[in-house]
Amino acid sequence: MRKIKESIYKWLFTITAFASLAFLVGIVIVLFKEGIPILKYIDFFPFIFGESWYPTYEPPDYGILPLIAASFWVTIGAMVICVPLGIGTALYLHELAGEKQRAVLKPTVELLAAIPSIVFGFFGMIIVAPFIQRLLNIPTGLCAFTASLVLGIMAIPAVSSIAEDALSFVPRSFKEASFALGANRWQTLTKVVIPAAGSGISTSIILGMSRIVGETMTVLMVSGGAAVIPKSFFSPVRPMTSTIAAEMGEAVMGSAHYNALFAIGLLLFLITLVINLIAEIISRKYRLKLGLNR
Amino acid sequence: MKKTLVTAISMILMIAGTFPGPVAGGEKTIVIEGSTTVLPIAQIAAEEFMNNDPSAKITVRGGGSGVGITSLIEGTCDIADASRAIKDAELANAAGRGISPKAHVVAMDGIAVIVHPSNPIGHLSKKQVKDIFTGNISDWSKVGGQSGKIVVLSRDSASGTFEAFGELALHNQKVRADALMQASNQAVASTVGKTPGAIGYVGLGYITGSVKALKIEGVIPSKETVLSGKYAYSRPLFMYTNGKPQGTVKAFLDYVLSAEGQRLAEDQGFVGLK
């Protein structure tokens, strides 16, 4: 009786563990199956490097360079905001904050991660964009800069919580040894703690980046949505994610437009896959270097 | 042991139960899906219809004209809302699956060209609108306004309003590439209301106090001018059924087209047919 019970539990958990693998494989298969057929309509290079995206016209244009460029610009801009703020938050929480400050700050930062992305989008669209428009006197506040700003704020918790974990993995003995040698707090932080946690911090940056690249709802609402290669940070852009979100609803199933959107999804998947692989490789190396078995 | 098994089985059944089955179902169950423009009409009409006939069960979903028509073709909805006529590709697709979509005009919609209330411009010609939206004119001084960059807002290429405006106003020429594509009528209206140099287009029902609707060729967009055909940018709104409507589907369409149904459409900011 007990044996049967145990084996049932074993199977139940085996199934749940493999379920996510099955979902992943299923999604990848669908992405390839629905995305690859775009190559029947347009060659690989004109698709990636084409500068004109007019999928619903006759004849249609399926060049996604403006969309790739938009994702790239917005991501870079958001990184400039979330990396210093996220890592600064982690350093403060780990090194400087007292018990009381920590007890308030840490949950607050985590709460920022709990805000749904559509709320960020709404906030960006209604408040930030008109403010930026008036402040800088530009034609419209819905632009790459605003998208970067909002996304950068959104990604702070992701970066700070992983960076803080990395800092806490640094053995206490490292710090003690540094202090024993007469180094002050600042020297210990910059010369010992940060280098020791360096790869973990890089991982946090890279994972924050993967979150930004894949973010959809917010960029759909605040980036403006013009499919042109951006000439400046203050021009409206149309990232890959928001293109899929905005157009999938109306694309005729099985059409070239439908395939093109799946191909964009496939490209996004490959980009985030590479980003995550890099993060994984860096964090493995780091664990080995420090001799940690976590 | 037995208990665990029972729990497991009941859980599986519960999960299975939450998946939507094929629509067929009971006589009085209908599923309506499609254009978000037609959605308010379908929704309010469905509510009133169910109040009058409690045994009827009507599910209304948005998604867009294309989604609705695709669902009709796949047999997962009974009525497809559309703010545009069905495309040839979709008709061919439907024929391949033995579906024959039939169009019913349920109301008229006017597309208003809107600007920021502070904009001194009060009217434009059809050619000026076309030039602005296709990229030939980029500064307000070219159409008699104060000099300044024109910020052009458009609906996403996926929307029925985009397609209708493209046909009615742009004669299928491309919208300028640097136009800001917005995901909804509200998004266009609220962005125009917050951007002094902006111009956009929305359904007649979405004209709010924070934007100014322009006269086109001297005709103000209103119910009267849309219905009489005087206003240039007006369009019919459709509900598509598979073949001739029957049973509850027919009863529902009759209700939408009745005096009461048309009044409901008017309440939602559309133009009734009567």
Could you characterize the architecture of this molecule?
- The complex is a heterodimer of chains A (294) and B (274).
- Chain A is mainly α.
- Chain A is built from eleven helices and two strands, in the order ααββααααααααα.
- Chain A has helices at residues 2-35, 44-49, 65-96, 99-114, 117-136, 144-169, 172-180, 185-214, 217-222, 240-247, 256-290, and strands at 53-54, 61-62.
- In chain A, β1 and β2 form a beta hairpin.
- Chain A is globular.
- Chain B has 274 residues and is an alpha/beta fold.
- Helix content of chain B is 38%, strand content 22%.
- Chain B contains ten helices and eleven strands.
- In chain B, the strands form two sheets. In chain B, strands 1, 2, 3, 4, 6, 7, 8, 9 and 11 form a nine-stranded mixed beta sheet that branches. Chain B has a two-stranded parallel sheet with strand order 5-10.
- In chain B, α6 links the parallel β6 and β7 (180-182).
- Chain B starts with a helix and ends in a 7-residue tail after the last helix.
- At the A-B interface, α1, β1, α5 and α10 of A face α3, α4, α6, β7 and α7 of B.
CATH architecture assignment of the largest domain in chain B: 3-Layer(aba) Sandwich
Class based on secondary structure composition and strand pairing of chain B: alpha/beta
What is the overall pLDDT average of chain B? 85
Give the tally of structural domains of chain B: 2
Give the termini separation of chain A: 37 Å
Poorly predicted spans of chain B: 16-25
How would you concisely characterize the structure shown here?
The complex is a heterodimer of chains A (294) and B (274). Chain A is mainly alpha-helical and 294 residues long. Chain A has helices at 2-35, 44-49, 65-96, 99-114, 117-136, 144-169, 172-180, 185-214, 217-222, 240-247, 256-290, and strands at residues 53-54, 61-62.
